Amino acid sequence: MAETMFVAGHSRLPAGMAAKNVYETLTITVELERKYGVILEASCTLATEHGRDFIGRLLRGHSILHGVDDLVEEVKQNYYGKATNAITAALADLHYQFQQIKLK
């Protein structure tokens, strides 16, 4: 079994966002260390490369093993764009997907 896994979380984008013209949902994808749930790499479907890079750097290094509350707080304190709620909802879905995989 591989030591890493790929997991995606999704949420709806708010109206009026540039990314909404391309995507209906925001997707956050992560490569996780399997045992401890540490995010090794992360990406998302924000419209700008700068936004995608920023979220990737913000998430990298955090563990989602015991939830995403710390990540949600990190996003709320450092990201000031229209997608804040969509990002936090996608993180919650990401954690849910991770828990479902771990239960198997």
Q: Which structural class do you get from the secondary structure elements?
A: alpha+beta
Q: How many separate helices?
A: 3
Order of helices and strands: EEEHHH
Strand order of the largest sheet: 1-2-3
- In percent, how much strand structure appears in the residues? 15-25%
For the CA atoms, what is the radius of gyration?
A: 13 Å
Number of extended strands: 3
Please tell me the overall pLDDT: 91
Largest sheet: 3 strands, antiparallel
N-to-C terminal Cα separation, in Å? 14 Å
Helical content class: 25-40%
Low-confidence stretches: none
Which shape, going by the Cα principal axes? globular
Word description of this protein:
This is DUF3870 domain-containing protein. It holds the Pfam family DUF3870. Residues 6-99 form the DUF3870 domain. InterPro entries: DUF3870 (IPR024617). Helices cover 39% and strands 23% of the residues. The chain has 104 residues and is an alpha+beta fold. The mean pLDDT is 91.
